[in-house]
Specification:
single chain; 385 residues; alpha/beta; Rossmann fold; Nuclear Transport Factor 2, Chain: A; 3 domains; 8-stranded mixed beta sheet; 3-stranded mixed beta sheet; 10 helices; globular; Cyclase_SnoaL-like; NTF2-like_dom_sf; LEA domain protein
Length: 385
């Protein structure tokens, strides 16, 4: 079903960025499929390194969208000023039309990172009927001046909430806590990783239905990933299921890695070969999103070796307290450091630690396995020893 781990995994997608004009470049999709619809990015940059792919392990927009399966043309503000918006779009559309990796070609998305660029581009959009949907990043103070277009649009607006003024098929989100205008630009002081990630998911939810994809079987990819992790135990094949610069964080212990080199080292030296021979996952529930899989599972293993990660782009969390309780390292009672009504100040008071062991997994598996609300009876006691 999956690749033979005795042989090297297939190389990562490596379509090279092509420079079309000064400030205009084409990046083919960076996915196994190698095909995808076209997407045009209008960027704020006047001068930038087109060969730069990441800033502090965060992909640049052109790489991020290529890893989502799009054939991406990036148009800089400098190209708009030099060629004019309509000519720059003509170059972009022609490049996507002649790009074998751009499939299908009849629906193209547009992402604009500044409202002024959008206003420059709007008058000529009617000449390009293949542009099917647009995303615009903007500030609240510029929203009143934003020109309208016939294509459905998604707006990311920095500023407080206001009554939206939306056309058919359009949507907007507001970000009242963001301070800088370049919050979507990796490497810029304004970059806000959390908000950029949320906005990107919203972009995918908006664009994919209007562009007929690209859609991927994330569940199958995830099953392949965990198979290489826990069954075949191949570092190289596990990494082959991930993007160029992946990120894994085991939340309770902050273990994992950011970027291919560090994550490969973690998988090789602290994870894949450190798990017990009988380690397995028992799936309880699964939620599938446009760009993520969220699993709730019981991890079963025999603690017959040192498991580094149990000191304990994948975010894994678990109840560290129940892990310690199952290991016999969490006492049933601990000292209570605060005054208790009716108890002398010099008394030794303890509280029952609100942490359970295997009962949490048993109830997760079977709702009737353990009675509910027993912890309500946990209380403090005087230690007379």
């Amino acid at each position: 079903m999956y690749a033979d781990i005795s042989k090297p995994p297939a190389p990562l997608p490596s379509g090279q960025l092509q420079k079309l004009e000064l400030g205009i470049s084409l990046q083919p999709p960076l996915t196994r499929r190698g095909l995808g619809p076209g997407l045009i990015l209008l960027t704020t940059a006047h001068e930038y390194d087109e060969d730069r792919t990441h800033w502090d392990d965060a992909p640049t927009p052109v790489i991020k969208w290529a890893e989502e399966g799009y054939a991406v043309v990036q148009i800089s503000a400098a190209a708009i000023e030099s060629l004019g918006a309509e000519e720059a779009f003509s170059v972009a559309i022609a490049a996507l039309g002649s790009c074998d990796a751009c499939q299908p070609k009849d629906k193209i998305g547009l992402v604009c990172f500044r409202s002024s660029l959008w206003n420059t581009a709007v008058p000529g959009l009617g000449s390009f009927p293949s542009i099917s949907a647009a995303v615009i990043y903007m500030d609240e103070q510029n929203s009143a001046d934003l020109l309208s277009a016939a294509v459905p649009s998604l707006k990311h607006i920095v500023g407080s909430a206001a009554k939206p003024s939306l056309g058919a098929g359009s949507k907007e989100y507001r970000y009242p806590d963001i301070k800088g205008s370049r919050w979507f630009s990796p490497g810029h002081p304004d970059f806000d990783y959390r908000s950029d990630s949320i906005a990107h998911t919203r972009n995918l939810q908006f664009l994919k239905p209007k562009m007929d994809g690209p859609y991927f079987d994330l569940e199958s990819i995830w099953e392949e990933h965990t198979y290489y992790e826990f069954a075949d135990r191949s570092v190289e094949h596990t990494m082959s299921t991930m993007v160029q610069e992946p990120y894994v964080n085991d939340i309770p212990t902050l273990t994992g890695g950011i970027g291919r080199l560090k994550l490969t080292d973690f998988y090789r030296n602290n994870f894949i070969f450190n798990n017990s021979a009988d380690a397995s996952l028992e799936l309880v529930s699964r939620t599938l999103g446009i760009d993520r899989v969220i699993d709730e599972f019981i991890f079963k293993f025999t603690h017959d070796r040192e498991i580094d990660w149990l000191l304990y782009h994948e975010h894994i969390s678990w109840d560290q307290g129940t892990t310690l309780r199952q290991l016999g390292l969490m006492p049933e009672y601990l000292p209570f450091p605060y005054p208790v009504a009716g108890v002398p100040d010099n008394a030794s008071v303890e509280y029952r630690v609100p942490v359970l062991g295997t009962e949490t997994a048993e109830k997760l598996r079977d709702r009737n396995a353990v009675a509910s609300n027993e912890m309500f009876q946990f209380s403090v006691r005087i230690n007379n020893e």
